Description:
Elements: H1 11-20, H2 26-35, H3 38-49, H4 65-78, H5 82-91, H6 93-98, H7 109-118, H8 121-137, H9 162-184, E1 188-191, E2 199-203, E3 212-216
Antiparallel strand pairs: 1-2, 2-3
Amino acid sequence: MIEMRRRQLSFGDGLIAEEICDLREDWMKHADEVLADEEIEKIVYEALAQRHPNSRRRGRRGTPADVVLRLLTLKHIRNWSYEELEREVRANLVYRNFTRIGSSKVPDAKTVARWGAVLGPQVLKAIHERVVKIAQAKGVITGRRMRVDTTVVETDIHYPTDSTLLGDGVRVLTRTMKKITKIVGAVGTKRATAAGASSSVCWRSAGSRAPKVRSIGTS
Length: 219
């Protein structure tokens, strides 16, 4: 069963919050204000509820939507893998407090990865639009322009040396010529005759019935 928020905090949660109140980073305060928005939490809740038809009413009580949202936000900010996220949250009281896990068991990396897959592009777009509206309401931005930053990500490709680039070009040209030949047909054919005899090259234009032949004498 999916919940929007944790209904009741435990005694351990209060102890953790008291101990780390002066250890939280500055950005966490601002993130708390945004992530506590009910509309954002509802977007995540509705996405998680789509995994199974009766997720809202039946089954054991699962991780609340606000905890899922904060875990994935922390992963993105720290640029961690799912395994690193699990390890760091388990070992750090500040992260436990920020994600609202508190003294509860930290979800394993595979479970968080499934949540990340559920919150796809459409969900992220809805969250971003809501964040922009919050920023506009607080006077942080006007919302007329957006600055986009990019990150270089390593991928499994060969290093672009001169020889490999030349080979790639040859492969692309060959593939393109095969596609053209398949569409328009063979425009020219070469006929070789017996040794010592003249050879002929035949050109057939599209739509013509009889080929046009031009003789080429051998030297």
